Amino acid sequence: MPQHGDRTQKLESRAQVSTLPQLQPRCFEDLAVAASIIRPGPIQAGSKHPYLRRRAGLEPVTYPHPLAEPALSKTLGVALWQEQAMTLAIDCAGFTPGEADRLRKAMAAKHSPEKVSQLRGRLLSGMATKGIDRAAAERIVGMIEAFSDYGFPQSHAQSMAGIIYASAWVKFHFPHALLAGIMAHLPMGFYDPQTLIQDAKQHGIEVRNVDIQRSGVHATLEPYADQPERRPAIRRGLTSVTGASEEIAERILTARGTVAFRSVADVARRTRLSAKLMEQLATAGAFDGLGVDRRTALWSAGAYTGEIQDVLPGLDNLAPAPELPVMTAAEATAADLDASGASATAHPAQHLRALLASHGAQPAREARDLADQTRVRVGGLAKYIQRPPTAKGVAFGALEDESGMINLIFSPPVWERTRETVLGAPAVLLEGHIERDRGSVNMIVHRAHALAGPARAHQPGRFR
Questions:
Q1: Sheet with 207-208, edge to edge strand ranges
Q2: How high is the mean pLDDT of the chain?
Q3: Mean pLDDT on 398-408
Q4: Does residue 112 register a pLDDT over 80?
Q5: Cα-atom radius of gyration of the chain, to the nearest Å?
Q6: Is residue 146 within 8 Å of 42, Cβ to Cβ?
Q7: How far, in whole angstroms, is CA 320 from its chain's centroid?
Q8: If 0-12 CB within 10 Å is exposed, 13-18 middle and 19+ buried, where does residue 229 land?
Q9: How far apart are CA 103 and CA 115, in angstroms?
Q10: pTM for this entry
Q11: CB 63 within 8 A of CB 79
């Protein structure tokens, strides 16, 4: 997405994104490799780093034994696909096709590590019969056993490569349509709405907040009437407001019909929404197009439900709203986050930029351009934190601000020291250094500090 977004749709995780500059895919088969290499099986088999080094010409292509070359030659001497494990069993251990198919079923079965390990003796004895020494046999068996932790069949990888290529083509030529489509089908994919909004902005695409007069059920495209050649804007859908289901959104569209709403009271009368939902819409700025600022709309939105229900005598006339101050930009962003989980108004970190600058923090985009081993501070939202079982305690994630993202890596000791701050604080200031490796850029985190401010954000999928 943001760093390499034009070419990485469906290669969404931070590990996959950071691997692409090292892999530098040039053909369809390279995309199949990209889809396969960041999986538990190839990682446990120790395939990733040797493959990338060999691909870059930094080490020679070698095989654990000459009999393994036919199975591994396409992937530079390492195993990436289930079919390769089956071929290794046939060529190196003398498995029959039927035995190899049992191995395939064992790799795909529940409790596959135990099932595959039951075949270990047969594999080793078969390799001994073929004259393969014990050290080479152990390496080959290790490759096969690693696929019990999940690896792709080559056919699956090629199917994904087709999706990757098609998605990348659409993203390159029609980013507005693809991003609107993803936002219309949330939750899906790896990224949350705020990241998608930022990615759209970085591609020069305007994203507009939900609007009671213009929004559809889901995100839609809005052409510019006076600039037809310009990429359309993305309008957030009514269902982006927390509590607004598709059924509620359809009710609003039916009530709106061909006659625009005239006022907040008119919305309440024609839609018969609950007071809570009217207040959510007001908080999200959905009534801005009616010429009512958010605070005034919020003051009156719930009370307008008196238009559609019986009230006590004397309470049927709504008192006019007092003189209320217009929300500041930071307050409007916070209201967007509270009501819809993301803001098209501004990125939350944008309101912390002066504070971050006072701490010597650089925008993520600038940090990504720094030289290898440069000490750096960045600040914003820590997101997409993962600690995969295959990473030996290392945690990965991203720091997002108004300029983009930078990949984060936490060593096990640093993660233990910083995890509460990173997972619990609404915004963080991170200290560390830049690590560059064949086009891949990461920040190695040393320390984390919590920041206070209007940078609240919903961060689904995070864990403790």
A1: 207-208, 233-235, 220-222
A2: 87
A3: 95
A4: no
A5: 27
A6: yes
A7: 45
A8: exposed
A9: 9
A10: 0.83
A11: no
Q: Which two tokens stand for residue 108?
A: 């795909």
Please give the single-letter amino acid code of residue 286.
A
Distances, alpha carbon 370 to alpha carbons 260, 297, 367, 442, in Å: 52, 46, 5, 11
| β 440-451/427-437 pair status | antiparallel
- Phi/psi-derived region of residue 261, left when phi > 0, alpha when psi is between -120 and 50, beta in every other case: beta
Give 107: exposed, middle or buried? Use CB within 10 Å, 0-12, 13-18, 19+: buried
Of 85, 82, 73, 152, which Cα lies nearest the Cα of 120?
Answer: 85
Distance between CA atoms of residues 234 and 253, nearest Å: 18
DSSP string, 21-42: HHH---SHHHHHHHHHHSSHHH
Cα dihedral: 132, 135, 140, 142 (round 10) = 150
Mean pLDDT for the stretch of residues 105-122:
78
Residue 299 parent element (H or E): helix 294-301
Predicted pLDDT at 460: 36
From 91-105, 239-253, 307-321, 418-432, the region with the lowest mean pLDDT: 307-321
Task: Name which of 19, 24, 9, 18 is nearest 405 in CA terms.
Answer: 18
Question: Using CA atoms in the order 194, 195, 198, 203, what is the torsion angle rounded to 10 degrees?
Answer: -140
Closest CA to 43 of 66, 13, 21: 13
